[in-house]
Amino acid sequence: MDVTEIKGEFTDIMFVTELRGSYPNVPISADVDYQALIKGDPDPMFLTIPIGKAGVTSGNQRHYDEAFVQELERQTLANKPIGLMGHLSQADRATAFPEEAAHWVGAIREGNTLWGKAYIVPGPVRERIARYKAHGKAIATSIDAFAEGVWDETIKAFRMAAKGLRLNQIDLAPADRAGIADLARVPLLTTEMQEEPAEIQQNITTEDNPAMDKLQVIQELTEADARLLPDSVRAAIVASVPTPAEVALIAELRTELGLEAGADIRAHIAEMRTTQETQRKAAITNRIKELVEGGIKVADVRGIVTELVTARQPQSVQDAEAAYTAVAASSAVTALLAGRVVETMGPAQGTPVQGQQNKNKYFVLPA
Fold first, then answer.
1. What CA–CA distance (Å, rounded) separates 285 from 297?
2. pLDDT mean over 266-274
């Protein structure tokens, strides 16, 4: 059986499948001097995009298995390659030294996909990628490396060997140059604010521990490391936490009050209290008016009685009734009522009656 081998420098655009969904949080390697990297850049930008995937075959008939992608991840983290916008030509490779467009500072696996994070140098490249992002145009990553491969008739492709890989660059490439053009990714641009914890990155990048103990790493995580976890992991953690009784009670209150999810319960309750207070005051005022108009026959005195009852500041209808009873029975009010009757009807009148021995006798009529 003939064995066909390839060996030497090569470039290959790495498109990966099944890229729908959220972007992972790719941490910056601990040995990257973040402040020196962004020095003089007022608005540092980082690009997150896939750089490889296990179990895929490129348009150039190169197949990348799990071992190859693991080695690609290791060398990306260890070497932190630069990237250009496109590849150097063979003629320029020996002498050209163009300004780099990207500095790859981190990588992380999510499933079979290897994601990379690159600092994008200020200038035309950053502006170009930002415009790609603005209108949803996909771009690709392209590996520039030395590698070896053996033809496998069963998959009609060269199986690339991990042990021979020497990564040179990870360049950026247009999506339409790949054999599987619909597998590119719209770039994610982020602003990184600080360096990642060294102890976590050490576990990821240490060459002598490729099969790191995940349980140990998880047990060593702190609260500050929570943002390093992929979004799917954080969502799973939140979903596993039982709903506190207070949260369930708030949800029930919203239902009882007829409020939509997210509505401000405090503002609604404050509005209800204001309405209730207005109704309470109106009920007290109306009851005082009923009592005064029904119990005080002299219209001119009703205003004074109303003021006296209100001055006692009744807090309920029952308080208003008690206050009215006390004011109406007070000596000041009874004297005032008597005086107003005399003013209105005049003094008490005497009626003569024939007495004994022809003497008149007077009886005083009640006022």
1. 19
2. 88
Instruction: For residues 343 and 341, give the distance between their C-alpha atoms in angstroms, rounded to a whole number.
Output: 5
Six-digit token pair at 83? Answer: 């990237």
What is the C-alpha to C-alpha distance for residues 33 and 72, in angstroms, rounded to an integer? 22
Q: And the tokens for 159?
A: 């199986």
Is pLDDT at 344 greater than 90 in this prediction?
Answer: no
Instruction: Say what the pLDDT of residue 157 is.
Output: 87
pLDDT in tens, 18-43: 334 468 889 999 899 999 999 999 99
Residue 139 near residue 174, CB atoms below 8 Å: yes
Beta-bridge partners for 167: 145
CA 292 to chain centre: 59
Among 163, 135, 243, 173, smallest CA distance to 12 is for 173
**Separation CA 309–CA 317 (nearest Å):** 12
Tokens 């009529």 locate to 365
Average pLDDT, the chain: 78
Residue 295 · residue 324 · CB < 8 Å = yes
CA angle 231, 235, 236 (to 5 degrees): 120
Sheet containing 113-120: give its strands across. 82-83, 102-110, 113-120, 45-53, 188-190
Angle at 114 between CA 188 and CA 52, to 5 degrees: 95
Q: Pairing mode, if any, of strands 102-110 and 113-120? A: antiparallel
When mean pLDDT is compared over 150-164, 198-212, 232-246, the highest value belongs to 150-164
Residue 207 token pair: 């060459």
Sign of the alpha-carbon dihedral angle for 117, 123, 125, 131: positive
